[in-house]
């Protein structure tokens, strides 16, 4: 027993050091965002002093230069509506695919699974050009594209779960006179909640942080930039010019995520585990 | 029941199917066809057979990206999984503050690729400044920078999965092993690891595909600098499409090859590890 | 509990989506006061696809200079106010013009007005360049030989600015140096070749504390995307001499005969500055101009377009009288008669695949820009361009000291300007690779021999690749 506590003590100490190491990059950026822009590159690890403290100037500059609040709004709009669309439509599709057994549904199921392995680069050029031709280069268009591209994983997970739901409950509902839609929404959906949360979280994480798809479809020429696109536009080239704004921008991009994480931590971690196990 | 359900096909399946066809099936099929063509816009393409594929193997940058990606992936897969597993072992030991540790280690995973890449670019440049050099001065710095970044981002995620797997190991098996006189190390290798195989399968699958397909972080951290020597496959494909006129067909061909490689590796890995899984 | 969570999230989302509305107006070239007048325009600009003003056409200009993005957007707004023709201005991020243009040109709403950098750029974009031979704009061009023509005699790209670059120096600091004991020269007139320049610079660097500066040269910015001053501008000097020797304006294979001379001046830049050579991969052009403007260094290589970066720097200590140009000496025989490097790299093209109305609208916009009072004032004062058109009178040339120096150099009979031959460099990729090699050379991971070899092989390879 004594040996175990001694080991535990050492492990605890190591873990504490790791915590500092893990948080370091974020603290680094946070600290530098409060220094004047000309003082950052010379002494990046120094704490802000009287002379170098810049208050909120960097934040104001960052917001102005990238239209941050607008980008935030668009990211929010696209993420939320895409997730809702995915939850609604893919659960229904998965239900149908699981309950109706014919060659068509199995074929469709395998196509969905197949799409999970295909890297984005394979379809990025053709998809973005198609989207442009069909005038989908706006937020609702993005929702459609995310629904299509995210369908693979979502259908796979929902199917996996629905398979394990006993048919008796649904058959009972049918006997009571429900049509399939009613059966689905009244009986199946409540049971689906845990999987739905997992699907929602995994997709939200991916869509909020996605860069390439919004860049290619919405790009620079429409007013609908999302946060990753705005960050890349400012920092990808301008960045060296205003280090202060860059640091502030990075902090602003990270803070909503951290807040969301701390609030929904339990669901997120559970969702991630469930997602992985099903895979 | 099936009969009634079938009538509802349009409502249940059609929306998803339409979006899926538009966002995936159509672009995929077009992509395959176009990889054998020379084209600028998708509507005017000329079939050129295998010409694009031949050009790929003469492309120095592509071969460099290919090797870089392989070296990077192998190294990352090993380090991430080993560290994550060690951390999972540590956090299943009933130490104080396990929840806090778990929260902190997982957090980096939520931060987006582009933002993550820039945060680390600043950190690494700040550190390298002490040695009077910069991240883009040497391809080796870019390589290790990416490895460090990848580890930071993925260790927490894998750790959580391993923790779940470890928690599922029946304690009576461990007790039995202890009674039989097994040392800690033997308990680990003979009991825990085989029973945690499903988690290992998943973690390997996730790290393999994430490492191979890495793009956002690559773009942000170095954008391939110096020259194109720290560009990974995904970035190389992107550069081929948008970096030079007349090479879109080659880009599409590269993408198809990329897909085949990723699929082959992922499927092989799944097959191998699944076979090793033990039923509890 | 779950229901409340869901409804709070929905409320939060709806509030957050409201943010999407803010700032949308200023995305499209509107200043706050114009927003009130033009309540139509945001809607129009958002529904780009649905409202094609078929009668008037519309303009979409893809600009390559982030520094003047605001100026162009204001100009566009003024034009729209006057004529009612919508003008959309999008600026590509620094160093990404070619990529962005490639991506945008294939869209249904492609740019109607864009730029190429010269004959090489034109080769890539031939299919998208409309013939401008019959436009008034071409008519106004002072020197018609610099326009880019096709084999059929059509005019496909019109240069819109003449610029010059060299070594910008701070005369006040130089005078301070000349007053010191043991100075290697007594005035700027004595510096007429590389040997003298090197002696002076190295001496200044050793006495930098006495002079109150941190180095003689500003940082040689080698961050990818910020290295164009070296892989393009500086490279132009040795290559122009090689062209001259061979009597050509283009080469399929380069011998890089004057590689040593490039090394001469490059070494001088990186070893006598305020930044250690290994750290140059982090420096941007902006950093260099700031160092010069704040009086931390005495010299910086750049062109007359950089004046606004010097003048607008908060806390700048350099005055207009003290800003002068020195030719870039590299040690080549006969360089005493060398002037600044003057030429153009900015050619306007009209998208030949856009609708006829849009093409006409774009040409009209350009002609307004270079002939109307508002346009000319903006071009001369806000953009600081020396425009090579007959519509500009003698008094309508930029007033800033650097532009004046360039004009002076062009008029000076005793020196020959070095022409801009980098418009014939094989490709952007060639230049980027060259910059990367210079970065590795500066950080010590490549020898100069390796750099030279790479330049020669890359030049031939890229010339071949583009020719396909």
Task: State the gist of this model.
In chain A, 79% of the residues lie in helices and 0% in strands. Chain A has 279 residues and is mainly alpha-helical.
Tell how many strands the DSSP assignment of chain C holds: 12
**Percent of residues of chain C in helical segments?**
40-55%
Strand order of the largest sheet of chain B: 1-2
State the share of residues found in helices of chain B, binned by percent.
over 70%
List unreliable stretches of 5+ residues of chain B: none
CATH architecture title of the largest domain in chain B: Orthogonal Bundle
Provide the number of structural domains of chain B. Answer: 2
What is the average of the pLDDT values of chain C? 85
The SSE string of chain B, one letter per element, is HHHEEHHHHHHHHHHH
Largest sheet of chain C: 6 strands, mixed
Give the overall shape of chain C, derived from the CA principal axes. Answer: globular
Most extensive chain interface and residues per partner: A-B, 93 and 93 residues
Classify the fold: give the CATH topology of the largest domain in chain C: D-Maltodextrin-Binding Protein, domain 2
Can you tell me the CATH superfamily of the largest domain in chain B?
MetI-like
Number of helices of chain B: 14
Shape summary of chain B: globular
**Secondary-structure-derived class of chain C:** alpha/beta
How far the N terminus sits from the C terminus of chain C, by CA atoms, comes to 66 Å
Mean pLDDT of chain B comes to: 87
CATH level 1 name of the largest domain in chain C: Alpha Beta
Number of strand segments of chain B: 2
């Amino acid at each position: 027993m004594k040996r175990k506590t001694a080991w535990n003590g050492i492990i605890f100490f190591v873990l504490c050091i790791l915590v500092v190491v893990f948080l370091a990059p974020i603290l680094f950026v946070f600290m530098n965002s409060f220094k004047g822009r000309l003082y950052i590159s010379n002494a990046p690890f120094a704490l802000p002093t009287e002379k170098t403290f810049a208050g909120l100037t960097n934040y104001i500059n960052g917001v102005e230069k990238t239209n941050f609040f607008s980008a935030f709004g668009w990211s929010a709009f696209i993420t939320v509506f895409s997730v809702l669309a995915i939850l609604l439509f893919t659960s229904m599709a998965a239900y149908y695919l699981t309950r109706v057994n014919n060659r068509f549904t199995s074929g469709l199921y395998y196509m969905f699974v197949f799409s999970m392995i295909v890297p984005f680069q394979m379809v990025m050029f053709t998809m973005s050009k198609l989207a442009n031709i069909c005038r989908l280069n706006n937020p609702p268009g993005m929702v459609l594209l995310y629904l299509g591209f995210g369908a693979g994983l979502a259908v796979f997970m929902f199917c996996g779960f629905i398979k394990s739901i006993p048919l008796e409950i649904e058959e009972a509902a049918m006997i009571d006179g429900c049509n399939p839609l009613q059966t689905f929404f009244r009986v199946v959906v409540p049971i689906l909640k845990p999987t739905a949360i997992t699907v929602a979280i995994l997709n939200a994480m991916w869509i909020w942080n996605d860069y390439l798809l919004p860049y290619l479809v919405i790009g620079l020429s429409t007013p609908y930039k999302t946060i990753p696109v705005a960050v890349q536009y400012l920092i990808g080239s301008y960045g060296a010019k205003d280090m202060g704004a860059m640091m502030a921008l990075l902090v602003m991009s990270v803070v909503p995520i951290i807040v969301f994480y701390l609030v929904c931590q339990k669901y997120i971690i559970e969702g991630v585990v469930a997602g992985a196990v099903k895979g | 029941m099936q009969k009634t359900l079938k009538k509802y096909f349009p409502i249940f399946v059609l929306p998803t199917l339409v979006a899926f066809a538009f966002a995936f099936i159509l672009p995929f099929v077009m992509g395959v066809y176009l990889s054998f063509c020379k084209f600028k816009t998708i509507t005017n393409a000329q079939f050129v057979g295998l010409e694009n594929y031949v050009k790929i193997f003469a492309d120095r940058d592509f071969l460099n990206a290919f090797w870089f990606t392989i070296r990077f992936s192998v190294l990352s897969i090993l380090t991430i999984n080993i560290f994550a597993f060690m951390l999972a072992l540590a956090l299943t030991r009933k130490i104080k503050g396990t929840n806090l540790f778990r929260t902190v280690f997982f957090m980096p995973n939520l931060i987006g690729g582009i933002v993550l890449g820039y945060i680390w670019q600043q950190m690494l440049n700040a550190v390298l400044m002490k040695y009077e050099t910069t991240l883009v001065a040497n391809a080796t710095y870019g390589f290790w920078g990416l490895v460090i970044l990848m580890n930071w981002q993925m260790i927490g995620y894998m750790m959580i999965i391993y923790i779940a797997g470890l928690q599922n190991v029946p304690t009576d098996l461990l007790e039995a092993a202890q009674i039989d006189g097994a040392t800690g190390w033997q308990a680990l290798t003979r009991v825990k690891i085989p029973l945690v195989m499903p988690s290992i399968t998943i973690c390997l699958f996730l790290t393999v595909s994430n490492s191979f397909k890495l793009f956002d972080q690559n773009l942000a951290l170095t954008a391939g600098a110096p020259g194109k020597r720290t560009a990974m496959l995904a970035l190389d494909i992107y550069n081929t499409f948008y970096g030079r006129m007349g090479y879109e067909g080659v880009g599409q061909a590269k993408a198809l090859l990329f897909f085949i490689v990723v699929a082959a590796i992922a499927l092989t890995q799944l097959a191998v590890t699944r076979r090793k899984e033990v039923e509890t | 509990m779950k229901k409340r969570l869901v409804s709070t999230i929905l409320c939060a989302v709806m509030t957050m989506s409201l943010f999407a509305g803010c700032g949308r107006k200023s995305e499209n070239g509107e200043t706050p006061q114009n927003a009130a007048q033009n309540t139509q325009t945001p809607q129009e600009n958002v529904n780009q696809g649905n409202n094609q003003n078929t009668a008037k056409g519309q303009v979409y200009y893809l600009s390559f200079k982030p520094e003047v993005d605001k100026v162009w957007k204001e100009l566009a707004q003024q034009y729209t106010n006057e004529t009612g023709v919508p003008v959309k201005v999008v600026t590509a991020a620094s160093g990404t013009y070619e990529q962005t243009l490639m991506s945008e040109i294939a869209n249904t709403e492609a740019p109607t007005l864009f730029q190429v950098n010269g004959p090489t750029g034109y080769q890539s974009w031939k299919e998208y360049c409309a013939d401008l031979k019959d436009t008034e704009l071409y008519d106004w061009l002072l020197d018609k030989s610099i326009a880019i023509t096709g084999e059929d005699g059509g005019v496909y790209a019109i240069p819109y600015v003449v610029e010059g670059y060299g070594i910008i120096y701070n005369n006040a600091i130089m005078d301070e140096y000349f007053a010191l004991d043991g100075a290697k020269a007594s005035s700027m007139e004595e510096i007429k070749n590389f040997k003298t320049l090197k002696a002076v610079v190295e001496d200044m660097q050793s006495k930098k504390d006495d002079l109150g500066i941190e180095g003689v040269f500003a940082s040689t910015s080698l961050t990818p995307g910020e290295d164009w001053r070296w892989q393009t501008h500086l490279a132009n000097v040795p290559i122009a001499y090689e062209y001259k020797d061979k009597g050509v304006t283009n080469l399929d294979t380069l011998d890089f005969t004057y590689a040593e001379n490039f090394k001469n001046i490059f070494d001088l830049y990186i070893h006598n500055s305020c930044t250690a050579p290994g750290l140059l991969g982090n420096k941007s052009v902006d950093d260099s101009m700031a160092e010069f403007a704040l009086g931390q260094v005495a010299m910086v290589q750049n062109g007359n377009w950089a004046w606004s970066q010097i003048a607008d720097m908060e806390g700048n200590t350099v005055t207009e009288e003290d800003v002068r140009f020195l030719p870039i000496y590299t040690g080549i025989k006969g360089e005493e008669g060398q002037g600044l490097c003057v030429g153009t790299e900015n050619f306007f093209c009209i998208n030949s695949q856009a609708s006829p109305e849009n093409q006409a609208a774009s040409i009209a916009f350009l002609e307004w820009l270079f002939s109307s009072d508002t346009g000319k004032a903006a071009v001369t004062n806000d953009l600081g361009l020396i425009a090579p058109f007959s519509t500009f009178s003698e008094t309508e040339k930029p007033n800033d000291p650097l532009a004046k120096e360039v004009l002076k150099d062009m008029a000076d009979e005793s020196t020959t300007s070095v022409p801009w031959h980098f418009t014939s460099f094989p490709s952007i990729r060639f230049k980027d690779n060259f910059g990367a090699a210079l970065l590795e050379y500066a950080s010590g991971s490549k020898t100069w021999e390796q750099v030279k070899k790479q330049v020669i092989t890359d030049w031939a390879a890229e010339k071949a690749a583009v020719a396909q």
